[in-house]
Amino acid sequence: MVKLIVFHRRRGEVSVEDWNAVWRGAYLDGLGKLPGSPRVVLDVPVPGQDGTRADGIDEVEWDDLGAAREAVGGAWLRYLIERASATQAEGWPCGGLFDERVVMEPPARGAGAKRMGRIHRLTGLDAKTFDARWRDEHGPLVLALPGIAGYVQQVAVQPVTGLAALDGVAVLWFADRAAAEQAFAGPAGEAARADAAEIMDAARVAATYVEERDAAAAAVVEDAPPGVWRNWSGLVRCQPQRIEMPRSEAELIAAVRRADREGLTVRVAGTGHSFTPLCASDGLLLSLDGMTGLVSASPERVEATAWAGTTIHDLGPLLHAHGLAMENMGDIDRQTLGGAVGTGTHGTGRELGSISTQVLGLRLITARGEVVDCSATEEPELWRAARVSLGALGVISQVRLRLVPAFRLHEMRWDWPFDRAMAALDRMISDNHHFEYFWNPQTDLCAMKSLNPTWREPGDATTGQRIDWSHRVFPSERTFRFNEMEFALPAERGPECVRAVRALMRERFPDVALPIEYRTLAADDIPLSPASGRATVTISVHQAAQLDHRTFFGEVEDVFRAHGGRPHWGKLHTHRAAALAALYLDWPRFQAVRRRLDPDGRFLNPHLRQLLEA
Fold it and tell me: Residue 89's pLDDT band (boundaries 50, 70, 90)?
């Protein structure tokens, strides 16, 4: 898919009638005549504008790259844009309002295409001229490159005061490095380079680079050097003495025993979706990427056992093949099963618990390399504690899950103003099996989302809706890297807390562009679960990975503390053992199990010692 974005705003002295005569007359008629019969989405609101049809953007989309090239390079479209621009206000910063603008859809996951980053920087030009040149004139030159498979005008590298995100990186996809180099070696590449040099600071043009990375990993996060591990957002890094990837339980046991003999701290890294340094180790860092897949599945008992290194993304199809599914999932499915259980990862739903509540049994490798199975009937005290254990009790090797028969979900998405969303919040939560919203601080709109089981076929869905098997509907794609803080609050405190966070962001942090997420969670009986003993609302805030989050998150955390919040173990916070002990009634119960299983603290890194040792 190729997308052209046209920004528009009515100048004050131009009447609405005259404005519409251009933008909804010849312009709209002309869009319908463009090659390839593009889809046209009119009047997408622009943050900070009055919401009228005269202030916004139009999106013109093609499925066929050839037709898009013909259209964007043609005189007719240029005439339309130039003619319509005559009604725009002088100095209006066209574009730059969104951190990410898709010009050509990146390749599908697993397509094997590589990405090339092209740094762009606003220099002597005003924002309107720069953005118009970059988007409307430079963009078609990029689309004309031979072999191009995707093009995104991407993420701000450095925040720019005001609206514009004009210092950043544009990302292009090619099949491989050779294809990228060949594209820029010919006449089309020379034209694109020359045009970029004319727009941008020459030193930044020279910073063009090619990365041999799969399209699925697209983000402005540096690769860690050899021997260094980093998490998904790039915030946490460590350099362990050894990184090992056992391919069997026997190899895992041997690795833990060696580390115990050598006195090394042992931590396990999944896919790095924890924002806190839970996985960091200066001793042995284990990856369970070699221990994946199903151990067994029983449609009759409606349960299955999986290796802990299996990602939730991969688990869904494996269970579906047996007519089974998880009853609830989070909106990210890239975590390993062991990591999701260990940190209490959850989805949303007032009557539904976290993934840890779906655990019927666990197999742990202790600090001495012993194998211990636990369940509600076998080592029950260990089972209760191990379902959220932060990797402090041992290495989880297998997880036995309580499941449900495979089912479809009907997803509905719509936007409401914040006040309307809050007025209807209780009804939305009670009337839907799963409900959440994302509040956009730049528009004050809530992106509402409901999921409900259905027997309807996928083809029955309409605009703003989707019907498919549950494991395909629960998760959302996350290619934009960020850091996150989330707290679990007593359900009755959720509305007042989110109002307080919103007020803080509008007053103190108006430049934060990423949303607040609001979800619900049923109470459980797991000692270190953030939902232990109480019906729960979770509220999370986000900041782009390349921006400093500390002051923003610190002040939001003060709000969470004032409302009785418990931090998500895998997301950023500054709580320490004394404060945490006061939040969990079963804290002593967990500590007694930990001291029995790991008396020497083999599984404690410095971060965990701050959390668990007073």
Answer: very low
Q: Give yes or no for residue 393 having a pLDDT over 50.
A: yes
Q: Which residue has the higher pLDDT, 389 or 39?
A: 389
Could you tell me the sign of the dihedral formed by the alpha carbons of 260, 261, 263, 267, in that order?
negative
Spell out the residues 6+ positions from residue 464 whose beta carbon is closer than 8 angstroms to its own: 412, 413, 414
Q: Please tell me the distance from the alpha carbon of residue 168 to that of residue 170, in angstroms, as a whole number.
A: 7
Rounded-to-integer distance, Cα 529 and Cα 387, Å:
8
CB 271 within 8 A of CB 292: no
pTM over 0.90? The answer is no
What distance in Å separates the CA atoms of residue 518 and residue 437, rounded to the nearest whole number?
5
Task: List domains and CATH numbers for the chain.
Answer: 2-217 (3.30.70.100), 408-582 (3.40.462.10)
| pLDDT tier at 196, thresholds 50, 70, 90 | confident
User: How many residues are listed for the chain in this entry?
Assistant: 614
- Using alpha carbons, select from 185, 102, 107, 94 the residue that is nearest to residue 148: 107
Strand, coil or helix: 482 = strand
Among residues 248, 271, 272, 529, the alpha carbon closest in space to that of 398 is found at 248
Strands (E), 329-472: 359-365, 371-375, 395-402, 404-405, 408-417, 434-440, 445-454, 465-469
Residue 560's contacts (CB-CB under 8 Å, 6 or more residues apart) are 485, 487, 489, 497, 501, 539, 567
Q: Is the pLDDT of residue 219 over 90?
A: no
- Three-state DSSP at 486 gives strand
Q: Which of 437, 460, 582 minimizes the C-alpha distance to 517?
A: 437
Q: Phi, psi (5° rounding) for residue 420?
A: -65, -40
Residue pair 65/143 in contact by the 8 Å Cβ criterion? yes
Element at 131 (helix H, strand E)? helix 127-132
404 burial type by CB count under 10 A (0-12 exposed, 13-18 middle, 19+ buried)? middle
Whole-angstrom Cα distance, residue 459 to residue 470?
Answer: 15
Cα 361 from chain centroid (whole Å): 29
Task: Please compute Rg for the chain using Cα positions.
Answer: 26
Report yes or no: 317 and 468 within 8 Å, Cβ to Cβ. Answer: no
User: Helical H runs in 240-308?
Assistant: 249-262
Please give the C-alpha separations between residue 87 and each of 5, 29, 54, 118, 325, in angstroms, as whole numbers: 17, 17, 10, 32, 55
Phi, psi of 169 (to 5 degrees): -135, 125
Helix, strand, or coil here: 223? Answer: coil
pLDDT for 156? 41
Contacts with 506 (C-beta within 8 Å, 6 or more apart), sequence order: 441
Contact 312, 334 (CB under 8 A): yes
Closest CA to 412 of 372, 363, 461, 365: 461
Contact yes or no for 484/515 (Cβ under 8 A):
no
Report whether pLDDT(562) > 60: yes
User: Which among 333, 331, 327, 383 is positioned nearest to 351, based on CA atoms?
Assistant: 327
What pLDDT sits at residue 58?
A: 67
Residue in the block written with tokens 């971060």 = 607
